Structure formats: structure tokens, C-alpha cells
């Protein structure tokens, strides 16, 4: 690699002032190629994960204008000063919306997003950003650990075709539950029923959504995995059974609000008034104690095809902001990520 090679990245043009990102929210910047220090490695980004929480990071100032926008990534090692990590290895890390980044000692990252080496023989490396990564652990922790579904119960999952929802529904089916998804387009509803095995799926775009949900849940709702909020939550609220449990993973309908936390607090109060046990979900609370157990439980199910997963992979560094905005609007289908450099583990025709 040429020593004068520059590293491109997307950054905020300024502190976001709009409820949702626009074309003016981001700009491309360049910096000198990072040089790995002791116990550090330089990595080339392959996949950039795009997730709703990133907009919250950006709006509340956790990402400063001028710095690369935060994101989890899958990358390939270019140069390494870390024992056990060599050029060519694939790693999970947090390069962000950047072509290159450092991992290792002293590199800033959320404490729970721990870099790790990936083994392509165990599955697609992109899965480290979804079903075998933080999203999978999020689904596992929120459903299995917090809500503890019992056989025969009705589990409802909003954003059922999204990055987390797909996994939640399939884990609930494996636990012996009746699973009802909530999604948008008809194609998404068909997918979670026909491909993922949900018992039913209703569209929140339907004018009769509340009635449709009630019809799909004739015995009420025992467990609700919340990803959306707004009118979706209002329809679910009326159907909770006694001893119902609810995990609040996200409320994407409110991420454009000035204070999204107020919406979470309001949902909690409304559900608890119905006698529902409500859990707020932060995946970082489960990484140290549950990540290995999660992989041991879920990875064999993925390998055996008992858990299926759809990724919405866009291509090209310049596609990151538009793909992010489309994901926030619900226009993605599956887990959204952008491939910004070739994935050597794929057949040449697929790269």
C-alpha cells in the first residue's frame, strides 16, 4: 500500500438539525492513512453495518462533526502489531463509515463492541454484523433472557423483517410459541411467514391494522418485542394478557423526536398500567456474560438452516448515507449494510 494513500470517510456536516437525515447531513472527508502503533492493527473495511441507533448517536452528539460516523464493521487486516492477528485475517470492529480504521489498544470504541477475529469457515463474515453478532445477541437477550417465552404463548414482534426482528421470531418458534410479526410491505409479511416460519404477519400500513392484529392474536399477547413504537405499540397495548412481558429494543417511529427517551418512558408507563412487566434492552449489558453462550446456542441453528436470515446489502462507499436514510424510513428489506470493498470470501461473481 502506498504510504501517501488517503483514507476516505463520511462525517457529519454539522450538528444534525433535522428530525431525519437529509442529503446535507453528511460530507465526505479525507485523512492520512492510519498507522498502527503497538498492539494495534490497520484494517480495510468490507462491510459497514447501518442501524437505527446510529442516528441517535449522531443527534445527541456522540459523533462529532469531522470524525467518522460510528458503525460496526467487518474488515480485513492490512498490517498488524497484535499477537495472533496477521494480514489477511478478517475481524469484527468499529471502523465506522470509513474505508480504513485501526483496532486494538487505545482505539476508541463503545466498551461492549469488542473486536474479534472471524473464522470464514463458520459462516459468512457479514453475519458478524447481524445474526451471529450484536443483533443476534440483542434478539437472544431481549426475548430469551428478559421475556422468557413459554411454549404455547403468543409472541408479537414489530419490525419483523428487520435486522433483529427476523431472529426474535425464529427463536420464539424454536421455543414453541405462536409468533405474529408486524411489518410494512406485503412482501415483508410474506417473507416472515413463508420463509421464516412465523404463524402470521400483519402490515402496519393497513387501514385496518389494529383489527388485523387482534384477529391474528385470538388468545391475546403474552410477549411483545418492541422495535417501532407509535401506532404499532398502541395496537399491541390493547391486547396484552395478564402476566405479559415486553422488551423495548427500539422505537424507530420516535427517533426523529426531540427527546426519544420520553416516548420510551411513556410506553413503559402505559404497559405497566396494564400489568405488563417491561424491560429496557441494552445489548451491552449482556456481552461479557452471555456472548459465548449465545453463539453456542444460535450458531448451530444457523448452520443447520433452522434459523434463516436475510441481509439487504448495498454496494459502494458513496451509497452509505442514502442507504442509511432508506433503512430509517423502512425501505430496506432485511439487515442493512453496505459493502465498500471486495469480500474475498465470496465467489468472484458475487463481489
Q: What's the end-to-end separation, in Å?
A: 21 Å
Strand content: 25-35%
Mean pLDDT: 94
SSE order: EEEHEEEEHEHEHEHEHEHEHEHE
Q: What's the β-strand tally?
A: 15
Structural class: alpha/beta
Rg calc: 20 Å
What profile does the largest beta sheet have? 7 strands, mixed
Detail the poorly predicted runs: none
Count the DSSP helices: 9
Structural overview:
The chain is 27% helix and 25% strand. It is built from 9 helices and 15 strands. Helix 3 links the parallel strand 8 and strand 9. The protein is globular. The chain starts with 5 loop residues before the first strand and ends in a 12-residue tail after the last strand.
What structural keywords apply?
globular; six-stranded parallel beta sheet; 351 residues; 15 strands; seven-stranded mixed beta sheet; single chain; 27% helix; alpha/beta
Short note summarizing the structure:
The chain is α/β, with parallel strands linked by helices and 351 residues long. It has 9 helices and 15 strands. Strands 3, 4, 5, 6, 7, 14 and 15 form a 7-stranded mixed sheet that branches. It has a 6-stranded parallel sheet with strand order 10-9-8-11-12-13, sandwiched between helices.
Topology:
Layout: E1 6-12, E2 26-32, E3 40-49, H1 53-59, E4 73-80, E5 90-93, E6 100-104, E7 116-118, H2 134-147, E8 154-158, H3 165-174, E9 178-183, H4 186-194, E10 200-203, H5 209-216, E11 221-226, H6 230-237, E12 240-248, H7 260-273, E13 277-280, H8 287-303, E14 311-315, H9 320-328, E15 335-339
Helix pairs in contact: 2-3, 2-8, 5-6
Amino acid at each position: 500500500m502506498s504510504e501517501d494513500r488517503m483514507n476516505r470517510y463520511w462525517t457529519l456536516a454539522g450538528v444534525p438539525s433535522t428530525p431525519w437525515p437529509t442529503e446535507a447531513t453528511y460530507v465526505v472527508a479525507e485523512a492520512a492513512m492510519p498507522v498502527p502503533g503497538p498492539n494495534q492493527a490497520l484494517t480495510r473495511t468490507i462491510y459497514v453495518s447501518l442501524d437505527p441507533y446510529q442516528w441517535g448517536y449522531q443527534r445527541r452528539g456522540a459523533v462529532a462533526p469531522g470524525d467518522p460516523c460510528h458503525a460496526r464493521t467487518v474488515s480485513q487486516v492490512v498490517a498488524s502489531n497484535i499477537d495472533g492477528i496477521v494480514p489477511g485475517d478478517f475481524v469484527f470492529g468499529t471502523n465506522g463509515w470509513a474505508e480504513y480504521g485501526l483496532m486494538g489498544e487505545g482505539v476508541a470504541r463503545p466498551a461492549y463492541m469488542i473486536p474479534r477475529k472471524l473464522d470464514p469457515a463458520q459462516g459468512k463474515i457479514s453475519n458478524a454484523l447481524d445474526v451471529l453478532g450484536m443483533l443476534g445477541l440483542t434478539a437472544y437477550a431481549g426475548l430469551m433472557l428478559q421475556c422468557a417465552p413459554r411454549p404455547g404463548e403468543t409472541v408479537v414482534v414489530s419490525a419483523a423483517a428487520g435486522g433483529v426482528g427476523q431472529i426474535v421470531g425464529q427463536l420464539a418458534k424454536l421455543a414453541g410459541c405462536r409468533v405474529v410479526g408486524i411489518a410494512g410491505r406485503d412482501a415483508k409479511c410474506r417473507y416472515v411467514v413463508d420463509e421464516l416460519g412465523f404463524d402470521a404477519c400483519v402490515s402496519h400500513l393497513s387501514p385496518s391494522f389494529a383489527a388485523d392484529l387482534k384477529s391474528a392474536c385470538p388468545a391475546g399477547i403474552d410477549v411483545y418485542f418492541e422495535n417501532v413504537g407509535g401506532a404499532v405499540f398502541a395496537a399491541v397495548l390493547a391486547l396484552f394478557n395478564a402476566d405479559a412481558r415486553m422488551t423495548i429494543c427500539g422505537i424507530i417511529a420516535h427517533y426523529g423526536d426531540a427527546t426519544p427517551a420520553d416516548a420510551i418512558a411513556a410506553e413503559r408507563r402505559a404497559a405497566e398500567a396494564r400489568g405488563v412487566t417491561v424491560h429496557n434492552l441494552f445489548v451491552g449489558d449482556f456481552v461479557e456474560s452471555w456472548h459465548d453462550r449465545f453463539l453456542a446456542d444460535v450458531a448451530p441453528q444457523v448452520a443447520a438452516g433452522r434459523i434463516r436470515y436475510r441481509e439487504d446489502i448495498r454496494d459502494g462507499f458513496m451509497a452509505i448515507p442514502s442507504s442509511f436514510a432508506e433503512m430509517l424510513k423502512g425501505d430496506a428489506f432485511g439487515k442493512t449494510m453496505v459493502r465498500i470493498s471486495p469480500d474475498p470470501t465470496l465467489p468472484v461473481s458475487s463481489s
